[in-house]
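Entry for the shared binder. Reason: the reviewer on the internal report wants the predicted structure included alongside the sequence.
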Amino acid sequence: MAVIRSTPMRYFEKRGGPTVAFWQIEQEGVRYLVAWGTVGSRGQGGTYTRDSEADCARMVERKIREKLAAGFVEVPRAPAAVAPARELESVLGAYAAHAAKFAFGTVKKLPGLERSYHVLGGLGFEEYVLLGPTETTGLWFVVKAASWDEELVRRFLRQLEARHAEVFAVEVAWKLRLDEPVGALDHALILAPVVARVAMKGLASTQLFQGLPIYDCEFRGDESIAEAEARTKGRGCIPTSTWNRAPHPVLDMRVQSSATKAKSKLLIYPPDQIAPFVRRVASLSPGSFLEVRSYRGELCRVTRGEALEVVSGKDGTPRRLSIEEVVAHLEAFVRGSK
């Protein structure tokens, strides 16, 4: 497993009249945690993910410079006492205690499988765990009851059990083709704990991986932690617990206006944003362009000239298309059908 490096929390204050504002920041691997408010109040906070640890460290330093420029002063704080590391709980034990407390039934081993269990049910969802190499690790997934099918669940878990060692060696994300599709879903996605961050009372955030069946077009397979989080947990993300869904293809886009020198970057958007982005580039000055990256890593460029010109994949020949034709072309492109 990749080691998550942490940096000490840094704390700042700014006096203004009768109140003292505080701001603090610390880094944990590719994430930084920020809290702010007034001294004596509960305050607010947030966690933000960057593409790499180095990128995260640069952002932390940038945020600190901004606060110093705004009049905040760093205040030394006595180091907090380090609590002794607690012994990790058994995954199945934690789920059994939770199920008993809230009357969600009991943890049950699935017939015909070696290490797969149904751990929670009810309230419209069914939850399962594939036990890891030790009793304190596991892979979790949840299915909405409306799309739940016992045979599909067993088919999915049977294939994960067959590749058990590979599943629990994942450091960020792993996309693999299923030998037996789960309905229309033909690939599996495994998220390491650093991405999954499953919140289960009694278990540490490092104990549970996450698994889900997906369409091929829904994940590239080489995503960074930030990208993997955005595709599976961000706004407009893959509906991971719905197994009878339509495809939710990768959509990484950027618009570059010829009127500005600021270089934009490819960002993740939900698939329904194709049409608005095409209309946007059509309204810009000639020379502006829209770039779209598919799950295969291929780029399609839409350039604003006298008309919209499209160059996609390995085909270097520009095609002049109407707005409606460009939208249809891009929708096919991100699904792999063009």
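Summary line for the report: The chain has eight helices and 18 strands.
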